[in-house]
Model the fold of this input.
Amino acid sequence: MKIYRMISIADIFTLVNALMGLSAILLVLEGQLRYAIYAVMVGILADGLDGMLARRFSRKWYLGDFLDVMADTTSFCVAPAVVVFAVVRDRLPLPPDYAMAITFAACGSTVVCGLLRLARFTYLSGGHSSTFLGLPSPGNALVLMLLALQSGFSTTPVPAWALVAASFVLAGLMITDMRWPKVKGAFAYVSGAVIFLVIMALQLDFTRIFSELLLDVGLMLAFAYAALGPLAVRWRARAPPAREAKKD
Done:
């Protein structure tokens, strides 16, 4: 079978996601950290559109699940780790050797735990469930990229050690046995809109007031999902089932 016959519309957005991950890495090498962060965030939007289209058309045809994992490895494991390394490097208040070792460990944990999470996702037959086992890699990438923006480009930057600590914590959440809800419906639209508006506002808002506000809102939404997602799943599981309609 010809490979183009095996690709669905949703898979095109998966390929865009992969290209955004590559772009982020290349932009870091060129010293364009802000645009590298934007590339990862656009990859998150493409991943969301991929999922929406896949659900809309019921399936992703033949290559979708495999493409997803490979694209996510690039965009949400390797690229965020490279960005974090570039943002944090030389900013930790430690001797250079110790700072480099800790930074490498934080970035390495993102890659290793992200790969383990995606491998488990594939082993358990993909995303054919109403929840995710472990923090999804796009959620990890979103928190890290928003923190990187806050750390490197905000008028009220967070310290570099906060980005390092977040890398370790999020890496652990990716391989935990806790479950996170899938982002659907209104929350998905709001999250996507906030990501898009953060990128546009940081480019166009010269007063920095609106962009800083949107960045704070984005961080709150991302942290809320990462921290409260498992509680939402448990609450939903304990909620009493809807009453069945009475039979005539």
Notes: The longest helix spans residues 209-238.
